[in-house]
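Feature request, filed as a ticket because there's no other form

It would be nice if the structure record came with a short human-readable summary line next to the tokens. Right now we just get the raw output. Example of a typical job, pasted below so the devs can see what we mean:
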Amino acid sequence: MVKRNVLVVALLLTVSSILAQSEYSVYLGGSYPLGDYGRFSTNNEEIAWYDKTSNAGAGVGFDIGIKMKSDIKSIEGLGFIITADLFYNGHNNDLKDLKKDYEEELEDFSSDFKFRMPKYINIPVMLGLNFETQLKSDIDLWTELAVGANLGKTTKYLREYGYDDYDDYYDYHLCYSMTYNTTLSLAYQFGIGVKLSDKISLGIHYYSLGSRRLEGEEYYEEHYSGNDDDYDEDFKLGRINPNMLNFRIGYCF
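Raw output as currently delivered:
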């Protein structure tokens, strides 16, 4: 028991020493989808969260994150990094137009409707290496590479509307939804940038957040003139590949 306590204390002191000597940074940037992740055209209305295709239709989003860097004493300029990010991507312009057109159609016969198209959330946590070298007295050049795991979430698809015709004693209501499973995938990133006055960091990064299948549970409910019909069942669609280019600014402390 005594040996275990001594070991725990030594481990805590070691971790505390590493954390105390580490550099931290927070950052914010724009997230630009690449390849099929950002592809969708109104000429081809197949979309990954509804069909078996890899076209995800993601639009330009944002990224916020935090990074910890701990220097490797034996190699000047080299350090371990741990990063955690939150990416959010909505719809590209073609999907926005499609959503607007569909909502205008719904407004013609229903004053009470809900229509939501899925958006993408990614939370990668990574471990890697960062190398930094001085260009001028107040300008450093850095590059980094990291790998880890990405927690991916696609938000809910929902189409719900109804109308009443009291003269004919007729009412109608429909609700259809698709709820997507949260996934875990292998991810990596590499980047390059500059640090100004040891405080402000400007960088360009490429992120590949792994391949994930869109699957989950769909629900359907229809009500008309006293008749009811409903079901829920599992579905399995295609895979998407969240690949992105990021431009961001960070503050180091």
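Something like this underneath would help us a lot:
Residues 8-20 have pLDDT under 50 and may be disordered.
The chain has one domain: 23-252.
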